[in-house]
Amino acid sequence: MSYFGRLMTSRIGRGSVAVAALSVVATASLAATSTGAVSAAPAMPKVGADGVPAASRVFVIVGENTSLGELTRSRAPYIAGTLKPKSAWLVGYRALANSSSTGDYIEMTSGQSIKCERNDTNPVNPKTDKAICHQKVNNIFNQLQGKGVSWKDWEESMPHACAFYDDGTDWAGDVYGAHHNPAIYYDDIEGDRYFEDFNKAPKQECISHDVPMGTTAKDNTSTFDQELRNGTVPRFNFIVPNDCENGHDLCGGHNSVGQFDAFVQREVAKILASPAWNSRSVIDITWDEQGDGTPHNRQVGSIWYGAQVKPGVYHGSWNHASLLRTIEDAFGLPHLRGAKTAKSTAAIWR
């Protein structure tokens, strides 16, 4: 068994930590953006069958194991208190039935999933180092690659690009779960090259685009943050915090929802302050699946923010394929699999 195989462990716990106080920077940035004080953006026509506006940049931030009813001002003061009044808040958005996390991430990015993904199986068996769960199927990353649209799947605490084994510990605050990394499940991105051999690296698409947010230090997002400061962040950003910051694991407190709330507060402030952000940029915050305390209630949060979004509470029947459909529309891409029939988000756009 390989060194990384011996390190790999199952990440199924979740927990909580008290949320940090709202920052002045985040609040000021959000207020400025909501009143239109954003960088100028070139005029772009609307695209897509649903009337979704063309986007200069899209930031999707994924949280873990939280039901919609858990998003309260006491547990998520930034998301429910500061962000919600300025965003489109979708009520009736549901996670995938009979699935664990991986299936949800795959549905978000390709509109379908297979049994091993719905069972939270990593791409590689750590005991045998054999590939056991991956697909040769089109996905949002390959769609963007084919159209020449820049993209990155940002994974916090991932030890290196395109890592297909778990890594880290809760006490160090650096848990990377490979099953929360959708790009490595697609053959047209990873290349079906699940080896450690020097001459058998994954495809360059994976090495260049499926990348760590920063170092493996606690709460480190330095690489992503530097691209934000430079204005060089890609047009599509799929952002996955580590298992402490996404609210999946218990990491020193009593409010797992607040762990993710603190991450969103910190990173949204940086996104809004970036020269890459303008009136055609949009942020989506979506949770993969329901909380452990409400296993039969699949309603999760999905929130859209940006100058092109009409704030309000919207009721409907959306799912992860609806998220994919919206992203595809924003970049003028055809709908894949379940996105073809998923409910659109047409009502939330100006």
In short:
This protein has 350 residues and is of the alpha/beta class.
What attributes characterize this protein structure?
two-stranded antiparallel ribbon, alpha/beta, eight-stranded mixed β-sheet, 350 residues, Alkaline Phosphatase, subunit A, disordered N terminus
Q: Which strands sit side by side, in order, in the main sheet?
A: 6-5-7-1-8-9-2-10
Radius of gyration, in Å, reads: 19 Å
CATH fold category name: Alkaline Phosphatase, subunit A
Name of the CATH homologous superfamily: Alkaline Phosphatase, subunit A
Helix share bin: 25-40%
Strand segment tally: 10
What does this structure look like?
Helix 4 (about 100-110) runs parallel beside helix 11. The strands form two sheets. This protein has an eight-stranded mixed β-sheet, with helices on both faces. With about 350 residues, it is α/β, with parallel strands linked by helices. Helices cover about 25% and strands about 15% of the residues.
Task: Chart the SSEs and their pairings.
Layout: H1 3-7, H2 24-34, E1 57-63, H3 77-83, E2 88-94, H4 101-110, H5 115-118, E3 124-125, E4 130-131, H6 140-147, E5 151-155, H7 187-190, H8 204-209, E6 210-212, H9 222-230, E7 236-240, H10 256-273, E8 281-287, E9 302-305, E10 312-319, H11 320-330
Parallel strand pairs: 1-7, 1-8, 2-10, 5-6, 5-7
Antiparallel strand pairs: 2-9, 3-4, 8-9
